[in-house]
C-alpha cells in the first residue's frame, strides 16, 4: 500500500497462542521407545496497530510460526510462516495520526497522538476509547510507555509530558527544548530519557525526579534517537547520517548511509551475541550494521534486506 503510516511496537499478551496437537512420535509397545524429534516451537501471537494520514486507526492480529525442516542429511534453514488478519479500522482523530504506542508486557493501553494536538487513550482488550489528554499546544510527535504505569509524550510545542496510567494525571511537564521535539528514547532502566529536536540539541531527562539534567548542542537537527538494548550506546539520526554515542555522550562512530534514513533500531539476535543496528532508508532496503562501543571497530553492513517496493 502506498499509504503512509506510523506503526506501534508489536507485543505479546492480549492473545494467547492456539494450543498445538502433540505430534511427537509415540512409543510402540514391545519394541522400545521410538526416538522423539524436537518439538515445534509454539507460534508467537502479536498485534500491530497503525495510524494513518487519513485519520484512520488500523488493528491487525497475527502469528509467526517457526518450523524446522530437513532435506536429505543436512538441515535446512528454519521455515517461517506469517499470518496477519485485520481486527478493526475506524476514524480515530480529527486530523492525521502522528504517533502510536502500546503499553508493554501485554498491557491493555493504547495511546494515539495526532496533528489535532490531542492524545487519545484506548482499551485494547475491550476495544473502546477511554478518554483524551489535552496538555500540548502542537502536533504530537512522540508517544511511548516507559513502563506499564507511565506514558511519555512529546510535541511540536517543545515540551514532554509524563502521565500516570492509573488515573491519567500529568505528573510532570518537561521544558527545555526551544522548538519542536522530534524524537524521544527512554533508557532500558526507564529512569532517564534522551530527546532531540529542531533546536539542534540533545537533552537528557531524569524521569524519576521529572527534570532535565543535561543538554548538548549537536550542530544539526536530530530526527530520531534510539538507545541500544543494553543501554550503553545511543544513536542519533539526521538525514543520511547516524552518530553513535556512549552513555557519557562521547561520539564513537559516524555512519554515512548511502540514502536518506527513515528509521533505525538496535537488535540483538541472541542473549550472548553482539548487538546490530537496523537501518530502513529511501533505498527500499533494511541495512544491518555491526555496532560496537570500540572506536576502532567501524560499523559495517553485513546484510541488506530487500522486499519493499517503495521507501
Automatic annotation (TrEMBL):
Keywords: Repeat, Ribosome biogenesis, WD repeat. One of its GO terms (biological process) is ribosome biogenesis. Transmembrane segments: none annotated. This is WD40 repeat-like protein. WD repeats lie at residues 90-125, 174-215. Residues 1-43 are annotated as: Disordered. Residues 19-31 have a biased composition (Basic and acidic residues). The keyword Repeat applies.
Amino acid at each position: 500500500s502506498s499509504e503512509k503510516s506510523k506503526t506501534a511496537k508489536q507485543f505479546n499478551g492480549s492473545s494467547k497462542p492456539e494450543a498445538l496437537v502433540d505430534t511427537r512420535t509415540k512409543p510402540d509397545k514391545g519394541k522400545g521407545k521410538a526416538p522423539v524429534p524436537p518439538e515445534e516451537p509454539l507460534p508467537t501471537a502479536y498485534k500491530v496497530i497503525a495510524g494513518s494520514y487519513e485519520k484512520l486507526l488500523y488493528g491487525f492480529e497475527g502469528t509467526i510460526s517457526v518450523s524446522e525442516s530437513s532435506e536429505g542429511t543436512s538441515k535446512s534453514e528454519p521455515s517461517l510462516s506469517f499470518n496477519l488478519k485485520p481486527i478493526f479500522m475506524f476514524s480515530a482523530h480529527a486530523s492525521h495520526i502522528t504517533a502510536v504506542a502500546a503499553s508493554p508486557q501485554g498491557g491493555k493501553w493504547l495511546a494515539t497522538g495526532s496533528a489535532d494536538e490531542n492524545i487519545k487513550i484506548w482499551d485494547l482488550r475491550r476495544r473502546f476509547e477511554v478518554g483524551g489528554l489535552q496538555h500540548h499546544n502542537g502536533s504530537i510527535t512522540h508517544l511511548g510507555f516507559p513502563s506499564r504505569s507511565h506514558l511519555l509524550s512529546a510535541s511540536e510545542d517543545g515540551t514532554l509530558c509524563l502521565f500516570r496510567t492509573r488515573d491519567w494525571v500529568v505528573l510532570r511537564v518537561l521544558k527545555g527544548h526551544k522548538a519542536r521535539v522530534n524524537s524521544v528514547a527512554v533508557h532500558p532502566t526507564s529512569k532517564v530519557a534522551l530527546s532531540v529536536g529542531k533546536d539542534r540539541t540533545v537533552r537528557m531527562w531524569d524521569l524519576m525526579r521529572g527534570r532535565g539534567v543535561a543538554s548538548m548542542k549537536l550542530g544539526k537537527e536530530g530526527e530520531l534517537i534510539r538507545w541500544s538494548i543494553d543501554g550503553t550506546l545511543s544513536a542519533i539520526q539526521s538525514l543520511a547520517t547516524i552518530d553513535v554515542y556512549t552513555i557519557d555522550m562521547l561520539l564513537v562512530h559516524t555512519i554515512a548511509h548511502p540514502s536518506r534514513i527513515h528509521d533505525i533500531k538496535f537488535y540483538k539476535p541472541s542473549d550472548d551475541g553482539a548487538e546490530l543496528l537496523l537501518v530502513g532508508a529511501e533505498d527500499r532496503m533494511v541495512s544491518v550494521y555491526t555496532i560496537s562501543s570500540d572506536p576502532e571497530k567501524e560499523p559495517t553492513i553485513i546484510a541488506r534486506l530487500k522486499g519493499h517496493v517503495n521507501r
